Known about the structure:
It is a single chain. The protein contains ten helices and 14 strands. With 318 residues, it is an alpha/beta fold. The protein has a six-stranded parallel beta sheet with strand order 3-2-1-4-5-6, sandwiched between helices. A three-stranded antiparallel beta sheet has the order 7-10-11. Strands 12-13-14 form a three-stranded antiparallel beta sheet. Helix 1 (14-25) packs parallel to helix 2, helix 3 (94-110) packs across helix 10 (292-317) and helix 5 (148-162) packs antiparallel against helix 7. It is globular. The termini are far apart.
Amino acid sequence: MAETQKVILIGDGAVGSSFAFANVLSSGVGQELGIIDLNEDRVQGDVLDLIDVLAYTHPKHVYKADYPDCKDADVVVITAGAAQKPGETRLDLVSKNMKIFKGMVQQVVDSGFQGIFLVATNPVDILTYATWKFSGFPASRVIGSGTTLDSARFRQEIADTLNVDSRNVHAYILGEHGDTEFAAWSRSNVGGLQLYDWIQENSAVDEEELIEKFYKVRDKAYEIIKLKGATHYGIGVALNRILKAILHNENAILPVSSYLAGEYGINDIYLGAPSIINNQGIRNTFEMELSEHELQLFQDSAKQMRKILDEALAELED
């Protein structure tokens, strides 16, 4: 990567602008942030607004960009696409956003871009796969936000229930970022103690209440969308966390949407799974030792995604 790390954001809607704000607040996560959107007035307004933040944060070159600016970028973050409406699942967005992505990704590639794609547009697992296919890039250089936000929500819910710091809770939501996601309960721990053991040793913990927390996590986006129309702060910060792992070459383990090639008995699909992230993208995705039931849930999630993906790709070719 160049000494001056450059990030291009495509999509300046609620998620994109929240990511941009989180990025401007973060020290050392890129020295350049260019923003692309069809609504150029909104971009220019956000650029002017974000520049006002810099005097109180960290130096950064923030500007309105266009696709040729992607040429020497380290990372292109994609949040553009049709928004999820109340009552609409992430998967309802497939056909609309697949068409948008085909042209958008091609323009990035045509610029000469050789960096890493980071995708957040929903349905993120399918659109990350589409970005990989449309770009022709190695799968390691195409990353989706996956279940990073879901896992953060899950850890916070567990922490609140147990009255501990969420930073000491280690737990993952895996699979689709959506309705078929599942909690890897068998691998969850608090301060190194297996969650099941914690429950047994603390009689005040209501196990049924804890289990219900997963459903709250799974459906939280629907609740937020119903109340305010969109989710954007959480995913904006989650994207910036993944970006930091890339630009700082952290080798951080995050449950991003990564390409599975035999892991968990799943092939040729992107899904949320723990992966090591550095400045080359996804170094590798590793297999957690899941329970038999959890493994089945993972494979069921993959089958559902595969069916929808195949239908979307076939429709795109018609």
